[in-house]
Amino acid sequence: MHNEPLAYRMRPRNLNEIVGQQHIIGKNTTLYKMIQNGHVPSMLLYGEPGIGKTSIAYAISGSSNLPFFSLNATHAGKKDVEQIVTEARISGKVILFLDEIHRFNKLQQDTLLPHVENGSIVLIGATTENPFHDVNPAIRSRCGEILQLKRHTQQDIAQLLTNALADTERGLGKHNIIITEEQIEHIAMASNGDARKALTLLESVYYASDEEDGQTIVKDHTIEHLAKRIGVYGDKGGSHFYNLLSALQKSVRGSDTNAALYYLAHLLENGDLIAVCRRLLVMAYEDVGLANPAVGAHVYAATESAKVLGLPEARIPLANAVIEMCLSPKSNSAYAALDNAIAAIHDGKTGDIPPHLRDGHYAGAKVLGHIGYQYPHDTPIGTFGGWIDQQYLPDNIASLEFYNPVIAGEEKRMAAIYERLKGFKKK
């Protein structure tokens, strides 16, 4: 057993050994009570790597009397599923833990689903992807519980590390390791909420430390060196990656510079530079918009520079772009106005283009009545340029307004012009 990694050996053996995730499996939860009373429901466990999906499945198995089987959907075949179905017929009921369940194909589903439905197989599926996007609805509908796990707190991770250091049977307790609470906290912080990374780092630190007089002395520099190598969860194209993009945009929209830089750092560590540049460019027009029209050009220049430079230098122009957008006045009025116009069309608020606006650059246009257009440039109005009062919308929707200005930044000036032109029309 001690040939297995420490993270594998320290998996909880029952529900009471689970650290963290108390919101879904704590002693006061309905799920805990159901399992303790002998009823294990089918469920989906959703969350990032290293936060306890597999551990919870094994702990549930340890707290029930049902035969337990584990498959990974990325390489399990129909034959594997059929063997478990056969075992379910013999045993009456079994638990199947299916990792990466979003990769389950239709043939495998067709073999498994009837047995999940009749209760002979209790399905515990685990996925890093949003189950409402990536898990087949047929499977989703047969799982009574869809449980989203949270990233472990630093306190949770420190507890896991302390348990591993004390456990003489499965952990490192039989070794005389000299490690301080501050060093345990350092490892917990470096793991970024990932229990597997934390235990792996602890094991690496143990094997990299020197032994003196029968004691293994952990040094700070050993932790610092190894912590740099544990990496960041790289979920390109997955749910976590899109959650990071969403968090970045919402932080910029909320003008929180520090949060925006934090999420930008995460995204760049994942390495998908193109997706980040694309999202930043959208944000310049969606969230800053007319309040600071120059930002669009600035962000475009920053993102193009980032693509030319590549990582790690790309972070420099992107940091400039993010901070400028955070601290800029903001308006979403332009795209909101267009969305209002699109909604009006979908609601049937349409009409004929006024004759004077139709194409008149061909012989016969006058015969069709395409006349009467007045050229605004021929009628200057103050320093604004050319303007003339004529109707542009179809007759039956001429009174509709889609644009609602935001009085912020540069748009404050534009809003004043918009209101003044409306006043001229009324006159």
TrEMBL record:
Every AAA+ ATPase domain range: 39-151
The reply to whether Nucleotide-binding figures as a keyword in the UniProt entry is yes
- Give the transmembrane ranges: none
Q: Is the keyword Nucleotide-binding in the record?
A: yes
Q: Which domain of life is it from?
A: Bacteria
- Gene3D superfamilies on file: 1.10.8.60, 1.20.272.10, DNA polymerase III clamp loader subunits, C-terminal domain, P-loop containing nucleotide triphosphate hydrolases
User: What GO molecular function terms would the record report?
Assistant: ATP binding; ATP hydrolysis activity; DNA binding; enzyme activator activity; single-stranded DNA helicase activity
Keywords from UniProt, A to Z, are: ATP-binding, Nucleotide-binding
Cite a single Pfam family from the UniProt record: AAA
**What's one GO BP annotation on this UniProt entry?**
DNA-templated DNA replication
Which InterPro entries does the entry mention? AAA+_ATPase, AAA_assoc_2, AAA_ATPase_RarA/MGS1/WRNIP1, ATPase_AAA_core, DNA_pol3_clamp-load_cplx_C, MgsA_C, P-loop_NTPase
Q: Which family does it belong to?
A: Belongs to the AAA ATPase family. RarA/MGS1/WRNIP1 subfamily.
Q: What is this protein called?
A: Replication-associated recombination protein A
| Gene source species | Lysinibacillus antri
